[in-house]
Amino acid sequence: MDPKLEEREAPTGGARAILIYDGACGLCRGGVSWLSRRAVGGQFEFLPCQAAERRARYPWMSERSCMEAMQLILPDGRLLAGDAAIPEILRRLRGWRWLALLFRLPGVEILAPRLYAWVARHRYEISCMLGRPRG
Q1: The dihedral of CA 67, 60, 15, 47: what is its sign?
Q2: I need a surface site. Which of 6, 94, 106, 110 has the fewest CB within 10 A?
Q3: Which of 12, 9, 83, 78 lies closest to 43, judged by CA?
Q4: 71 - beta bridge partners?
Q5: Three-class SS of residue 101?
Q6: Distance between CA atoms of 109 and 104, rounded to whole angstroms?
Q7: What is the pLDDT of residues 32-45, one digit of tens each?
């Protein structure tokens, strides 16, 4: 099994995927805003990692894990973290589904985790450079 894909007993209770993100990160909040404008028919529910609701609904998810990488809980309960979530997110976006296919190209499985990890580590600095400070 792919180490980035974990089986969890956490069905979302509908056809919506739950995207858990760093709510203090301007880059992350901007990404959520961008996604919400492009998502097909309410495909996502967005939940900040820091929210009490996240802790209540998903007590098995540590704050550390959702601060290190976004967490996407699919309607069937599967959990995709970080770069592993990106193709599934893209498949749920109007006009961006084709981009998910690029994640199947040779070498992407090596580059995507490294690039994602770098951006995740530097997200606050990137946010400031883009004029989206911590909030």
Answers
A1: negative
A2: 106
A3: 12
A4: 20, 81
A5: helix
A6: 8
A7: 999 999 987 889 99
Report the distance separating Cα 132 and Cα 135, nearest Å: 8
| Burial of 28 from C-beta contacts in 10 A (0-12 / 13-18 / 19+) | buried
Q: Which residues contact 119 (CB under 8 A, 6 or more apart)?
A: 27, 126
Tokens of 31: 């990404």
* Beta pairing class for 71-73 and 44-48: unpaired
Long-range contacts of 84-88 (CB under 8 A, 24+ apart): 84/2, 84/4, 84/5, 85/19, 86/112, 86/116, 88/17
Residue in 113, 51, 126 with CA at minimum distance from that of residue 86: 113
Instruction: Report how far apart, in Å, the C-alpha atoms of 59 and of each of 43, 49, 62, 66 are.
Output: 23, 11, 7, 12
